[in-house]
Amino acid sequence: MSSKYDSMPLSSLVLGDPSNTAANTLAQRLAKRTKKQVFVSYSLAMTDSNLSLLVENRIKKELELHPECF
Description:
Layout: H1 22-34, H2 49-65
GO biological process, one term: proteasome assembly
InterPro entries: PAC4
Protein name: Proteasome assembly chaperone 4
């Protein structure tokens, strides 16, 4: 859900390290793409950006292949 002041969807950290913004960033991108509310639980290491990219690309592929599940 975006605000009237910004086109990026709003996001909030409920639990976890506030310095790790990966979950918020992923949630914002998915919410913008789906135009729906998104909840993300994210426990990947911050140091492994390749794995993070693979996970995000797989989620996007699943969104394309099975939009009825989202």
